[in-house]
Structures are given as structure tokens and as C-alpha cells.
Amino acid sequence: MQLKVATYNIHACVGTDGRFEPDRVARVLQEIDADIIALQEVEHHDVDGCDLLDYLAAKTGLTPIAGPTLQRETRHYGNAILTKLPILKVNRVDLTLPGREPRGALDVTFAGNGRRVQVVATHLGLRPWERRQQVRRLLKLFEIGLDDIYVLMGDLNEWFLWGRPLRWLHAHFKRTPQPATFPGRRPFMALDRLWVHPRRRLARLEVHATGLARVASDHLPLKAIIEI
């Protein structure tokens, strides 16, 4: 069995042309056709009478899992997952540090072809000291077993290729390719990342760089094929 996963910072559905168009993001999600997709910068908007996340779920036929990090009276904002797989457990993790923008992660366990698939989807802070503390906390979520699949993915905001967070992640999961995903039109920074354990299960990792994806958000989606 092959499992397709992806991570995508949708920039609240505001494209590189400055226009708010949720339908473009929905069509990119349809292009990717992932079994599990992590979303960042999901902001509450009323779209055709429903919340933005519910709108994207309806357009793709996927089950939504919300992980807001900012709770506002009218607009929530944060992480989300859309999935085709049966959900076994959902754990919403607070990664917020004092004086900084609220951050978090969705730690979700799925059933996949007789195996447990643990996915941690996140969006880390802008300061290096934030990311160091957040990555330490994320790594504690994984209890590596022999028969399970583990995935960490999201917008790590880590542009220091020599930084400690990436060294720790590569040591934990083993090194993976790091294609550029930002900015969407002409990407040169690998802000969006994806790791799989066991590493041998990662069959393919690539950027989804269609013409539509280049305009729908300021990030390009990163997608992978995992052998189960």
C-alpha cells in the first residue's frame, strides 16, 4: 500500500496576487489528492455559508481536524489536517512560548493498512530560540515502535540549514531531501519540511509546483509517497 501525505501553508487562501480565493486552494488540494494533508495558516472565514476548513473539507471529500492556535471571537487561526484515513487519536499540542505568537501542533494517529500511522503537523515560530525549544517538545511526542509509521511535517520556518533544530530532526528521522517551497512563484527557501520513520518507507518527496499552486498561496505544497 502507498500512502500519500502532504503539507501546505495555505496563507489563509490569499494568493500571490493578493486575492482571497478559497476555491483555488481547494483545487490545489484536489490536484494533490493526498490521504493526509497538513495545513497551516488556516483562518476562519465564512465561505458559502460555512467555515473555511469545512469548505475545504467539503470540496475535497476529506475529514477535517482543526488545530487552532489563535482563538478569536470571530476568527480562529492555526493548523489543520484533512484526511481519508480512519482517525484513532487526536492530541492538540501547545507550543507557545512567553511573549511570542501562539504556536501548536496536531498529533494524530491514523489506521493505515493494519499499521498505526502517527502524524505530527506543525507551524513553528520565527525566532531561532523558539524553534529549538519547540523541536525538543515535538520529538518527545514520538515513541518509536517496530511496526508503526511516523511522520513529522509542516512549516518549520527554519532557514538556517546548519541550525540545531534541523540537525536534531535529521538525527532522529535520518536526512531527507529539502526542496524549496517558498516563495510560491520562485521558491528558494525550504521552509516546509517532511520526515518519515522508518526512513526506508519514504519512496518519494517532491514539491507540487503546478501553475495553480504557484498563485494560490505564497508557499508551494510539499508531498510524499510512503510505502506501508
Automatic annotation (TrEMBL):
Query: A GO CC term?
Result: membrane
Tell me the Gene Ontology biological-process terms attached to this UniProt entry: GPI anchor biosynthetic process
**Does the keyword section mention Repressor?**
no
| Keyword Repeat set for record | no
Fetch the Gene3D superfamilies from UniProt. Endonuclease/exonuclease/phosphatase
Q: Which residues form the Endonuclease/exonuclease/phosphatase domain?
A: 6-219
Q: Which domain of life is it from?
A: Bacteria
Enumerate the InterPro entries for this protein. Endo/exonu/phosph_ase_sf, Endo/exonuclease/phosphatase, GPI-anchor_lipid_remodeler
List keywords of the entry alphabetically: Endonuclease, Exonuclease, Hydrolase, Nuclease
A single GO molecular function term of this UniProt record: exonuclease activity
User: Would you tell me the protein name for this molecule?
Assistant: Metal-dependent hydrolase, endonuclease/exonuclease/phosphatase family
